[in-house]
Amino acid sequence: MADALGQSPAYLAYLRSLGVTDANDAAGTQTGVDTVQRRTATMLPRIAEQGAISREGISGNYESRGLYRSGQHEVSLARQRAGEGQQVGDLQSGGADQIALLQATLVQQRAARQRQLVEQALNAANGLYAQSGTDALLGGY
Amino acid sequence: MADQFAAAQAAAADQKRALLAAMATGGTAAADAYKAAQADTSAARQSAVQGALAAAAQRGAPAELQSQLQATISAPFDRQNANLSQAAASRAADMAQRGTADAAYFDQASAAAPVMRAATDHLLAIRRAQYNLAHQGFGGTGKSEAEIKAAAVGKASHDLAAADAEAAAAHKASTPLAEDAMGAAHRLMGGDGSTPVQSVDRPALDAANAAEHKRAAAQAALDQANAMPVHERNQQAALSLFPRLGPDLAAGIFPEPTLAQRVAEARLQAEAANVDEFGVPRLPAAPPADGSAAAVKASADYDTGVTSARNAALGAKTYDEWVKAFAAANPDLDNATLIAIVTDGKKFFPTSTSIPGLAP
Is the CB of A100 less than 8 angstroms away from the CB of B34? Predict the structure, then answer.
């Protein structure tokens, strides 16, 4: 069926450009996903390291005040871990949002190209049909 | 020729399938990203809680404190997981909504193909008819546009002439018969008119009456054709000669003229009648003025003549009167053309401001 539109130069030109554009968009999306995942992988150990340093500071403070084995010390450490957990959660949910957005954008870009392809096909069909009708008219005389 | 539109419809169906597949892939990738984040968050939560409780136990923290510590540490991780679930659901709903809209677009595009084909068929039919008209005549009859236009009045005139001839023949045939009948009646009445008529040749008289009616009908048809706007008359003539054209094609070939075209036509007709568009007769050009007393007088006489001729032609002293007179004298002009002309003619009546009795 698609061969019937093969005589339209504009349609063929659009088809040629379609594959290149799609490949470029897919590559751009993959690069974006890789970047997000690499940043997350880099940030997580850094947060853990800073958390450990922070806990050492908290424990040292309680130790210097003679409260190392106190419930208050444990609660302070738990709050620090909760804050650290919040940072980890923010990083991971932010990354997931970005990846989902990149994927959705790629789908939308593809949908836009598919819509344009259909419009090109309709225009090509109409042009070829009108042209063949005119040719038949002129060829009759 | 229909293959091109079928191909376009097939392309729309293909792209719809491809889009739905791409949305499924994209949706899976997005859902996977949220699932991975939830798994990482759960692992981080477990690690944080276990590490904290182990360290607290080493420091000799009481067992009843552990549940409080666990709750404090777990809270932000649990909130994140709930947020991630909500974000994943929102993203999925958004993509589903876009997918529905895009699928509807492809369905509409597919449905547009036969409509576009029908519209192009219509344009091609008009183009073919115009080409035939210009180059060969409709249906290969060799009729030109001018011939077709002339055919309308020609056909009506022919009908009228035939009806005239028929009426005359019938009248001629019936006259002696009627005279004979009247003579017989006169003789029966003894010449004094007191005796009623016994017999009359009714068939001959009926034939004469029928022929006269036919002639009157033909005259009425011709009058009606002449009263019609030219483009409608041409359309009817084309349809009369070539019924397969159909009213749409006939209207495409002989379209209704625009207002500017109608005004221009009225002016052309006025020019042909040697009057201006206001019905004022055209006068010879003013004599050249060389400064002499005779030339000045001739020029003044010319101006007076022009004024007199115009006043006489207008036959009215006020603009309102002139508009009424002009409208009455030009019954064939439609309202819009009439308004365009009398508006232009206002310059002869600078004190008037309205066009009475004429609504646009």
Answer: yes
